[in-house]
Amino acid sequence: TPPLTSSCLLPRPPRASTMTSIVSIYTTFDSLHSAMLLGPSIVLFTHADPIATHMESVFLALATSPPPSTPPLSFLQIDAGKAPDVARRFAVTQAPTFVFAHPAPTDGSRLVVAARVVGADPGRLNEVAEGFAKTASLPKEEAVKRYIGGLVERAPVVVFMKGDREEPKCKFSRELVGIFAEEGIEFSGVDILADEGLRAEMKTYSNWPTYPQVYAKGKFAGGLDVMKELRENGELKEALGAVPIEERIKALLSSKDILLFMKGNKASPQCGFSRQMVELLGNKLIEYDTFDILEDEDIRAGLKKFSNWPTYPQLYVRGQFIGGLDICKELEEEDEFESTIKEHLEKPSAAA
Q: H/E/C letters for each residue in 100-154?
C-alpha cells in the first residue's frame, strides 16, 4: 500500500459538533485516518525513547495553547513502535515525526499531507503549526485555488489526465502520454478520476473544458490538440521549457561544488538516513548545498538512473558521485572521508 501523501479513499465520517485541543491517542490506521478526515490535524508519531518523550511534552503544550484556526486543529498521537504498519503507510521512518494533514478542499474523503517535521525541533514545530493553522482557516474558494496552485507547480511539466502515465484511462490521455514519451518529455501526472471535485474545479481554474490539461512551469499550456500542433511545428519542447532530465541533473551538479540530494534539507531532514548524512557533514564542518528530492519527483527518479544508485541521500562533489550514506560512513571509518572530498574538489567538474 503506498504512503498516504496524496489521497485516501475511505469514507469521510460525520464532523463532530465540537472539537477540543487535546491530544487523542490512536492505535490503528482506520481510527487515526477517520479522525484526520474530521478536519485539520497534527499527528505525532512517537516512540518509547527520551527524545520522543520530550517532544510529547512539547506537543501537549502546543495542543493546550494552539494557534487559532477555523476549524480548530486536532492533535493526534500514535506509537510508531507499536503500530509500524501505520507509520509505513504515512511514510514515517523515524520518531518523533509530526505529520500535518487536512481533507482535500476538493474532496473531503481524501487526505492531503501538507507538511512534516522530523526529529526534536520545537521551534520548527511551532513555526510549521502557525503556518498550517493559517492555511486551514482559508475560505474554501481560496483553499481550493492554493491547493491547485501547489499541484500545477509541483514539477516543471504537470499533466491533469484520466489515469496515469502507466495506465491512461482514456484515448486522449493515452495519446498525450505517447507523444511525451516519444519526445522525451518528463512530466508529473495528476489523475482527475481520483477526485471528482478537482476534476470540476480544474475546468474553471484553467478555463478549459476537457482533459488532458498540460501545465508548464505553473502556467496552463493547453490540451491535447495544442500539444499536437506544437509538435507538428517543432515547438513542443521549447513551449514547455522541457529540458531532458540528464541535462537538468548536470546543470544542478555544475552549479555547486558539494551537493547533497536528500529528503528535506540540512535544517529539516525528512528521513533518518538524510539526517545521519547531515550530521556526518556537519561534524566535519564541510560547507555544502542540498537539493530536496521530495520537491521534484523527476529529479528523484532520474538521479537514480544517472548515478546507478537506488537510494537517498546521494553526495556529489564537483559533479562526481561519492556515494550514499553507507559508503560515506565507510570512508569516515577508514579516515578517508575528508580527504576524498578534498581530492575531488581539486578536480575539474565532472558535470561540465
A: EEEEECCEEEEEEEEEEEECCCHHHHHHHHHHHHHHHCCCHHHHHHHHHHHHHCC
